[in-house]
Amino acid sequence: MSLIGETTGKPGGDIIKEGTDASFVADVVEASKVQPVIVDFWATWCGPCRQLGPALEKAVTAAKGAVKLVKVDIDKNPAFAGQLRVQSIPAVFAFVDGRPVDGFMGALPDSQVKQFVDRLAKQGAGAPGDGLDDLLTLARESLELGDLGGAAQAYAQVLQEDPANVKALGGLARVYLAGGDAERAREILEMAPADAKDPDLDSVRAALALADAAPSDTAEFEARLGANPDDHEARFELAKALAGQGRFEEAADNLLTIIERDRAWNDDAARKQLLTVFEAAGPMSDVAKQGRRRLSTVLFS
């Protein structure tokens, strides 16, 4: 299953090796100043690790020496995994010029593993700056897939290199908010400049504002709507409560219902609240895109 035995001892056979905490500086940090080094943190009990390992080894072997792979069993060698804040395995880091510049968590399809290795091989040593963009892309993809741990780790890596990176701060705030930790999300927001413009920062700010203004319960308003579906005030308060809970799609649906039935109700309150919901959900979210289409249909019909 492993290709380690097949490569060791042949020309270029040191491109895949077992690493330890004792050898990490030499095998990874120093070696990456010559050529990119991939570190695979794994454990014998980890099923996804057994899936990812052979794919990584195959892709690195195919790169013909342009990239090295160091495999570290975290049960036997926990020190550097701890320093890199590895939260789950498999965890893969790419080192260039002595520092991590890219990475991912979890088992990926073979094709994506190959793309990761090929991208690193083309990058080569001495160009670590480009890795931050790749890491931000990885973090975004992880967040969209619901891999909050992977997204948090990738954003944290960017912030280690660039503590003022607005995209990483916004993304990490979204991760904490999605994980239900609103207070930590607020702390991350406070680290960003007050005038910083970023969709994720704006999204989290809007979501927190909605949560702060939200009624604590929906039961009263649902009961009122059950008795009178045209009780716009009850529907509006229900939408506020839903938005405060992060249930943006349901909140948008109720606000759009008010607009459809009385578009100017309460000095356009439903439309104004709807735009805040779109911002909280994210301008490219399905909630915003579908909601805007429905809003346009109502306003221009």
From TrEMBL:
Organism, as annotated: Phenylobacterium hankyongense
Entry's family note: Belongs to the thioredoxin family.
PANTHER family: GEO12009P1 (PTHR45663)
A GO biological-process term: response to stress
Gene3D superfamilies, per database record: Glutaredoxin, Tetratricopeptide repeat domain
GO MF, any single term: protein-disulfide reductase activity
An example Gene Ontology CC term for this record: cytosol
Entry protein name: Co-chaperone YbbN
Taxonomic lineage: Bacteria, Pseudomonadati, Pseudomonadota, Alphaproteobacteria, Caulobacterales
Domain Thioredoxin positions: 6-122
Pfam families assigned to the protein according to its UniProt record, in alphabetical order: Thioredoxin (PF00085), TPR_19 (PF14559), TPR_20 (PF14561)
UniProt keyword terms in alphabetical order: Disulfide bond, Electron transport, Redox-active center, Transport
InterPro entries the UniProt entry points to: Thioredoxin-like_sf (IPR036249), Thioredoxin_CS (IPR017937), Thioredoxin_domain (IPR013766), TPR-like_helical_dom_sf (IPR011990), TPR_rpt (IPR019734)
